[in-house]
Design goal:
Layout: H1 2-22, E1 50-54, E2 57-59, E3 64-68, H2 71-75, E4 79-87, E5 93-103, E6 111-114, E7 126-128, E8 131-132, E9 138-142, E10 152-161, E11 166-176
Parallel strand pairs: 3-11
Antiparallel strand pairs: 1-2, 1-4, 4-8, 4-9, 5-7, 5-10, 6-9, 10-11
Length: 177
């Protein structure tokens, strides 16, 4: 009986030892390869017609300009940001633009825009004279109390020629409340 018990125990130990090594879940898995760095969704080329500025600072194509509301903005319940357009050509250019909300609460779609000399902007092209046009900015105006406190939004701003926005200059604009 002792001999049978020893043989049974040896068989049990061998089974348990091989069973544990055979059940290694990582043994059959291939070595993972690192994921490639994703390419940008869109590559933006600088416009030959337009450049955009906030104050005296040019915002390069594809870059993000960030504005954080001040206490004064919040106390007066109004945030206003002016985007200055430079017409880099030597002749007047029929200009249009488009703001697209990419991130943030839908309340950030409730803003007013003035452009050229049209306030509120009617969606029709306006004429930009050659050079910087600080007296005819694109003015973004929002009432912070209509948006969730402490929230943020990211917009894509495209400025181009005519309604088709040809030769566009594209920047991103983040507003933090």
């Amino acid at each position: 009986m002792k001999k049978a018990f020893r043989i049974l125990m040896a068989a049990f130990v061998l089974t348990a030892t091989f069973g544990l090594t055979a059940c290694d879940p990582d043994e059959d898995k291939p070595t993972p390869t690192p994921e490639p760095t994703p390419e940008p969704i869109e590559n933006y080329e600088p416009s030959s017609t337009y450049a955009l500025y906030v104050g005296d600072t040019e915002i390069p194509v594809g870059d993000t300009c960030t504005y954080t509301a001040t206490d004064n903005d919040l106390n007066y319940d109004e945030v206003v940001v002016n985007f200055i357009i430079e017409n880099k050509t030597t002749s007047p250019a029929p200009t249009s633009h488009k703001f697209e909300l990419l991130e943030g609460p839908a309340a950030f779609n409730d803003y007013k825009v003035c452009a050229g000399e049209i306030c509120p902007w009617n969606g029709k092209p306006y004429i930009m004279q050659p050079g910087k046009n600080p007296t005819q900015p694109i003015t973004y105006d929002i009432i912070p109390s209509k948006c969730p406190a402490g929230s943020s939004a990211l917009y894509k701003l495209t400025v181009g020629r005519g309604n088709g926005l040809s030769d566009p200059q594209v920047i991103f604009f983040r507003l933090n409340l």
